[in-house]
Amino acid sequence: MNSFFGTERKELEGKIAEIFGVPKAKLRAETLFRKVYKQNPLEDYDFSELSQDVSAWFKNNYLLSVPLEISEIQTSTHDGSVKFAIRLKSDGKWVESVLIPERGRLTQCISTQVGCAQACRFCQTGRMGLMRSLTSEEIVGQVILAEKWRRENPDYHVASYQRISNIVYMGMGEPLDNIDNVIKSTQIFCDNLGLNFSPNKVTVSTVGLMPALDRILNETKVAVALSLHSPFEEERSKVMPVNLRHPLTHVVETLRKHALSGTRSSFMIQYTLLRGINDSEQHAQALVSLLQGVGAKINLIPLNEHEGAAFRRPDLGRVYQFQQILKNSGMVATVRLSKGRDIQAACGQLIKNKVKS
Ligand code: SF4
């Protein structure tokens, strides 16, 4: 059986064309997508618009369930964020996903891998190492499950939103280390007959793996965010070992190339501020020089400390000083005081104690 929620519409159309012929394949694939996604995924579907043979073939060949289940939830008493521990049915491993309500938007942060191979030194997930990558249906399934959970739990603050409005690939794992399944999942999210997210509401965050960075920029229209964290090569390598294989200057040059060619007009740059490590005036000025011509919007994130962390969070005065230097140089810079800190759901805090090897 194929998983419907891991299938792109053009793929389904191709299969229908093989079995029933080309002439009505496009229309039939459109009807199936409309029926499944517009009628609350995971509930009863009405396929009566399709001929009996197509509908029977579809039901016999496609699974209309998701290969994961919510096992635990935690709710932030501060801001209403909800963290899900999600069990992957195929092997019992776990990932986490977070719903974040904020100023009229409901954002879901999703995972792409169990653990992560990149070992960024400020990140809890990086301490787990990589266990495996998620399939496209496991990535898409996180959003479908969260929407279903919202429908069934109207008393939670996140249920008061009309729908999940934004998706960020900032959970467990490095998305570009699972590039095929990540690209496929973005196409399913952004299909106007599927989950119908606008590409600018979907953000893939990366440490900058090449050549996958070029692929996501060339093959999709979703927003891309680079986790930068230091403007100096040697220092970045100490905090993010990936920099030894994919040096910062090369990665930023790639963004600049795409900004100049018009593939994207801007990029989000994520910069986690670590006290006494990367929060000086010199760092702010070097960041301004490095990012010339990139169309950068810098998101400053004071470190979310966790048990055993080697770094400390700077005080807010220092954070706002850093921001001011960037703004004085004409950069767009915002400060993100992460949501969900009280439930260990903020950036760099996702780790599942129940993860099984
Ligand atoms: S910050 Fe992202 S890329 Fe780095 S270790 Fe954590 S999950 Fe992996």
Structural description of this entry:
The protein is 34% helix and 20% strand. It is α/β, with parallel strands linked by helices and 357 residues long. The chain folds into 2 domains: 2-63; 68-343, Aldolase class I (TIM Barrel). A 10-stranded mixed sheet has the order 3-4-5-6-9-10-11-12-13-14, with helices on one face. It has a two-stranded parallel ribbon with strand order 1-2. The radius of gyration is 21 Å and the shape is globular. The model has no long low-confidence stretch (mean pLDDT 92). It binds iron/sulfur cluster. The site of iron/sulfur cluster has 12 residues, from loops. Its cofactor is [4Fe-4S] cluster. One of its GO terms (biological process) is rRNA base methylation. Belongs to the radical SAM superfamily. RlmN family. Keywords: 4Fe-4S, Cytoplasm, Disulfide bond, Iron, Iron-sulfur, Metal-binding, Methyltransferase, rRNA processing, S-adenosyl-L-methionine, Transferase.
Which helices and strands appear, and what pairs or packs with what?
Elements: E1 2-3, H1 9-20, H2 25-38, H3 52-61, E2 62-63, E3 68-75, E4 82-88, E5 94-102, E6 105-109, E7 113-115, E8 130-133, H4 136-152, E9 166-169, H5 179-190, E10 202-206, H6 212-219, E11 223-227, H7 233-239, H8 242-245, H9 248-261, E12 267-273, H10 281-290, E13 296-302, H11 316-328, E14 332-335
This protein binds iron/sulfur cluster.
Iron/sulfur cluster is lined by residues 116, 118-120, 123, 125-126, 172-174, 207, 348.
Cofactor: [4Fe-4S] cluster
Keywords: 4Fe-4S, Cytoplasm, Disulfide bond, Iron, Iron-sulfur, Metal-binding, Methyltransferase, rRNA processing, S-adenosyl-L-methionine, Transferase
Family: Belongs to the radical SAM superfamily. RlmN family.
